[in-house]
Structure formats: structure tokens, C-alpha cells
Write the C-alpha cells for this entry.
Amino acid sequence: MKPELSIEILQEEAAKFAEIETTYDEPSLYGITDGKAVGTYLEHKFTTFLAGAYNYRQGNSATGIDIPGLGVDIKVTSVKQPQSSCPFKSASQKVFGLDYHLLVFVYDKYDDHENKTARLNMQHTIFVDKQRTADFQTTKGLLEILDRDGNLDDIIAFIAERNLPVDEIGAYQLAEKIIQTPPLQGYLTISNALQWRLQYGRVIQMAGEITGIFRVR
């Protein structure tokens, strides 16, 4: 009987996996420049690595995240431009976060032309608690407004200035929620698009210094 996977074990295994992967030469990735292909390779390899030792429910297109039982999505990104996309659900994600944790593998890919193999030198492995997955500048601005006794009108104006993808009624409802339940400071940079574009430079920089952002390796 395999043991159950937990958040703590996931982080430990992610550190072990990244250590192993850094020393592994992979012929199938040689010459590959498509970040999505590299990400798919690494995510599949890691979830297979976990499934060999632990009991857990793997994600699919319906659940939308990689480890739904733990509420964790795995992100793989190059150190040259640490970013990825995720599904857009509502503008409130930019204020209150994504509703799931992120496990972020940041790699530097090296091609060995003599042996025709590639190596993913794992630079950072970061775990971001879902409470820290909101947009940095948006939450910072909102918290500053609230600290200065800002009211509903001030919040609605800020939402409009930041071009959050929400209509007038949605902006009013979001502002009411912000007044009633102020958000926590987020540390992602989330760009507006049909899919959110998540940028991880700040979480890499702040990992281990902020509650809820852990440097796994």
C-alpha cells in the first residue's frame, strides 16, 4: 500500500527530483526550443516519479490542475524568462489569488552538441501557497488605498485604472468584497490576457523570505 501524498512530502520529493534531473542527459530534448514541450516533458516525468511511490489523484483536463487532491498546479519555466500561462476564471484572481498552490520548477536548458543530448539544470524549485498567488502591484495598491481609509468609490476607480477585465457591475461587486475582506499581499505578476500570464521573477527573489513562499531547492 503506497503512502498518501501530502504538501510537505510533495516539496521534499520535488527537491529530490530536481536534484536528480539536473544530472540527467535527455536525448529527446536535444535541440528543442519550445518551452511548452519542455514543460510537458518535465511535468509528466515528475508526476510519474510521484506515482511510483505515493498514492494521489492525478489531474486531467476537467480538473485543470496537476494534483487536484492537494490543490497544486505544477509550472515549468525557463530561467531566461520565468513565466507561464494559466486559465482565466475571473478578475478576482488578480486580487484574491488563483485558489490553488503552485509548484514552480525553473530550469536552464543546456544542449550537448557532441553527444546530442540536453540537460535541464534546475535553478530554482519554489512552492507558492495559494494565499500568495495574487498580483503584486494590484494587491499592493489596494492595501495602500485601504490603509488611507479609501472607500468603495476609490476601490472602483483603482480597478478601472488597472484595467481589470471586469464590467461595471462586476467591478462594484469586486470592490465590495475587497472592502469586506481585504486581500493578502500577492507576489506573482499577472498580465491581463485571455489566459493569465504569470511571471515568477518576484517569487524567485522572495522565496524563503515571505510567509507562504518556500524555496524547496
Observations:
- The radius of gyration is 19 Å.
- The longest strand covers residues 101-112.
- The mean pLDDT is 94.
